[in-house]
Amino acid sequence: MQNQTELPPETNSDEDDQAMEFDLSSTTALDLTSFQLHDLDSVELPSSLTELDLTANRLSKLDPRIANLINLRKLSFRQNLIDDAAIESISSWDSLSGLEELVLRDNKLMKVPDVSLFKKLLVFDVSFNEITSLHGMSKVSSTLKELYVSKNEVTKMEEIDHLHELQILELGSNRLRVMENLQNFSKLEELWLGRNRIKAINLCGLKYIKKISLQSNRLTSMIGLEECVALEELYLSHNGISKMEGLSTLVNLRVLDVSSNKLTSVNDIQNLTRLEDLWLNDNQIESLESVAEAVSGSREKLTTVYLENNPCKISKLPSYPETIFPQYRANRFKHICLEENGFRKPAPNLEWLPYPPFQAPSDYIITAAEVDTARVLLE
């Protein structure tokens, strides 16, 4: 337990108990993570607690003493065995009306519990349960800023449109087919909807969102992102997108992941001067030169480019990575990957090239004139 003091060997057991009681009385945070507790009978719960973390135990019911912790602000039952019947009593815990964070992640819930008593709730997490519907979310306080309902069985985005203060919404790994009821989230900054069944992007006019994840859905188009001018990170991998479009207005974008799609070329990102990470791997991109043209506006910012598992090849020497990306030549790249694109390491007469080595097509014969040209370009 937190704030316990180790006593000298000669101290008797009565003094031990008194010392422990004294120490716990002023404890504000109690972390019992991974204690494998089946109940809290042996645990003292001082009234001074503001944070109680019961993560990774074997709890199947709620200890009624928790209801008396009037100063409690954060409560976590993450990774326990709590079901709908066990959580019901929380709806009558009037003394905990000041609770700000409630975590019920990874339990056995099949519906959203009644948390209407908590009028100051800021964070609510019911991810990794067996919840099939968001029915009950309408009772959650409109003060909520972070909502996590990932890895459930939810089929519809509903009863959340009153959450005007919401900043983070996590609904990944559910069974959603349509993006809806987002129009009131004017303060939303992060939207995580990966691993669903969504076919079209509909952000309902969200202009201030900074991070969007729609990975592993059923998208065939990027259309719908144009108004998200504050967007900084966009994750669209593992979809069926065949064309890059609607991106030119996203001038604040730093991370773009469109890997594992059906792209044949790189387009509409010339204006993205702040782009740092670009993931294009596992597509059908045929020309490295087209990539060079597409990133012309962000050449000085790019630090990571993934292009492996594409059919693209270099058609002539001056278009090798050091020419396309100046940072690559100056060793300022975190990573540039061209593996599985038909490249090979340079011939011995090109060992003078800076690290990382230039990779030319396996069937390309490098002439002495081209070596001289390359040297001039690098100087």
Automatic annotation (TrEMBL):
InterPro entries: Leu-rich_rpt (IPR001611), Leu-rich_rpt_4 (IPR025875), Leu-rich_rpt_typical-subtyp (IPR003591), LRR_dom_sf (IPR032675), SDS22/Internalin_LRR (IPR050836). It comes from the Eukaryota. Keywords: Leucine-rich repeat, Repeat. This is Protein phosphatase 1 regulatory subunit pprA-like.
